[in-house]
């Protein structure tokens, strides 16, 4: 299931960050062992009335002149148009309607994306409502008054957001073709990989889909089966500001990963693995997607009989939070091992969808418990009653215990390893929920 993406656009100081933080709440830092990603307040998971969506703040740096404000707003708006299902255009009732608002509103209107005009800082409806009506002049629909600071109007705004989401059964979900996102830093060879795969197969099926973001998808037929590649390199953005480029690249990655079943994290063999690679891989890990680490430009490396081992070791060290991911050494230039990606993609998807019968799971847990005693604290020992798989993509398990506090992270890891020993689950993370049963 791919989650809808909602993007926030607006001038500096209208209250974008305040609204973002309010909506993101404590959801921001759920995963502690993923480096980097959770600290960036660029995107967050939000839940409203049983609908989950990814919220993106497209605005980053504080510009210091009006010219820069307008060009930056255009840039933000373009990112939102490229990536979002619904755009929240935030204005400020206290600053009133300004020229740059009108220009950006024009741009958003032309994109035909659903846009909600949100007028913030309406801390008192009775006092400020007359000023809100002025925003009708933007021609992008009814202004929704809110106060992010006093939490007014937020529920009505979220209702309006959700009303624009595709119905639960979207076309994408009916579509059972594997969806593969190719992510990675600039210049690691993402486009080269796609182009080479296209060249090998010589079959291009054009995607005619409703939304603009699908325009960057490439469908490739291999062995009679179609694969949809979501390429984050396809859209390039020019910006002189490094932070802005990075923000853009993270937003592109998040939205591509969101729509994918399997993520190919491409790494440049010549450059070696870096923290930035870990940050990108972390996005796929956090979302529980299938992951394949693709070390590209393998042709350009001087090799001896230790090179692969050393390389693997270094990749595992930097990406220690995803030991389950398969590593492949390829070359987009020579085509070496690229064809094998398809088999790996199929395997990872099968593992993401694998369901283990409850009886078998409980046998494995009983055996694991017999081999290594569960932890205890102050004379009380952890008891594990029952395990069952409750979901796929990623495979998710619930373990019922006597006392949650006694279930150490390391013991969950131990059980995870036992389950992996039995079933592999290569390429996919596993999720565990611990519940108490008295
Ligand atoms: P951003 O630059 O668009 O991200 O704006 P911020 O979220 O940083 O907010 C800019 C300023 O507006 C801060 O001083 C906030 O405290 C203030 N602010 C945000 N929302 C509201 C609101 O609903 N009412 C009032 N009165 N002030 C707000
Ligand atoms: P992207 O920004 O990730 O899409 O990277 P590109 O596909 O544009 O590739 C960046 C540069 O790396 C180009 O100059 C490519 O020719 C080069 N490149 C890509 N793949 C390989 C490879 O497998 N081997 C070598 N030697 N160079 C490669």
Fold topology:
Elements: E1 5-10, H1 16-24, E2 43-48, E3 51-57, H2 66-83, E4 86-92, H3 99-111, E5 115-120, H4 125-133, E6 144-145, H5 154-163, H6 171-174, E7 179-183, H7 190-201, E8 204-205, E9 217-222, E10 225-231, H8 242-258, E11 262-268, H9 275-286, E12 290-296, H10 307-318, E13 326-329, H11 340-352, H12 358-371, E14 376-377, E15 380-381, E16 384-391, E17 396-401, H13 409-423, E18 431-436
Parallel strand pairs: 1-3, 1-4, 4-5, 5-6, 7-10, 7-11, 11-12, 12-13, 17-18
Antiparallel strand pairs: 2-3, 8-9, 9-10, 14-15, 16-17
Give structural notes.
The protein has 438 residues and is of the alpha/beta class. 36% of the residues lie in helices and 22% in strands. The protein has helices at 16-24, 66-83, 99-111, 125-133, 154-163, 171-174, 190-201, 242-258, 275-286, 307-318, 340-352, 358-371, 409-423, and strands at residues 5-10, 43-48, 51-57, 86-92, 115-120, 144-145, 179-183, 204-205, 217-222, 225-231, 262-268, 290-296, 326-329, 376-377, 380-381, 384-391, 396-401, 431-436. The strands form four sheets. The chain has a seven-stranded mixed beta sheet, with helices on both faces. Mean pLDDT is 86; it is low at 26-39 and 202-215. Bound molecules: guanosine-5'-diphosphate (GDP) (2 copies). One guanosine-5'-diphosphate binds next to α1. One guanosine-5'-diphosphate binds next to α7.
